Amino acid sequence: MSLRLDRLSPAVRAKAAPFLEDLARVAGGDLHSLHVVGSAVTADWVEGRSDVNTLLVLREMDLAVLEAIGPLGKRHRRTGIAPPLVMDVAYVAGSLDVFPMEFLELRLIHETVAGEDRLARLEIGRADLRHQCEREVRSRLVGLRQAYLRSLGEPKALAEALAGFLAGYQPLARGILSLLGREVPVRRAEAFAALAAVAGPDAVVFGEVLAVKEGRSKPDADGVRSLFERCHRATEQLGRIVDALAV
Question: Residues 185, 188, 191, 192: what is their CA dihedral angle, to the nearest 10 degrees?
Fold first, then answer.
């Protein structure tokens, strides 16, 4: 099967092409579509630091295909290729109401390199997305408080915890922006800036935590505590915004 790799950046294409070719080969006639997803199809991807993530959609689930994919990890894991997500067509259709936020991410951030691009046409239910956003906000509030307690007052540990939490805020930001009918950026910094524009000044903190995560900022102890407090307030505000949304 000829893969459509021209829309991938040269660096991602060079890294991912052998793995994508192997995936297409082992899937064979069971392949419905093959996609590169996540940061590898955005300007956020950093060579040598970011993984390449993929999604393989099969016509029907076949465990023999999984067995054939397994050995590919030994061949490609040291090149920054993450294990692929593997789904079948029926799973995707039946899971949109269960994982609306995740499928919104896939719809927004993907490149189809083989087969039919159904991801671009996924229909995400507004009520389902609002419900998951509410659940995520409440979960993140509890997680933030636990992270604060686990840090035992150590600024470095708390800063690392905040940076680790940030990945989960990216799909949440895009989900809330989608519910509000706003343009939904795919780049992390732009998504957080758009969220701050609708969620108030405290939400600027997500961009500041991103700077910490990327090594562009190294706050002192007081600065880390301020980041935590504003992150907590901003998350509470996100909860109020989601609660007020009509479905």
Answer: -170
Q: How far is CA 238 from the centre of its chain?
A: 18
Closest CA to 46 of 6, 4, 15: 15
In this prediction the pTM is 0.93
Query: How would you label 201-240 residue by residue, b for 16+ Cβ within 10 Å and e otherwise?
Result: ebbbbbbbbbebbeeeeebeeeebbebbebbbebbebbbe
CA gap 201, 51 in Å, rounded: 32
- How confident is the model over 53-112, as pLDDT tens digits? 999 999 999 999 999 998 887 788 788 899 999 999 999 999 999 999 999 999 999 999
Structure tokens at 75: 């061949």
Q: Are 102 and 171 in contact (CB under 8 A)?
A: yes
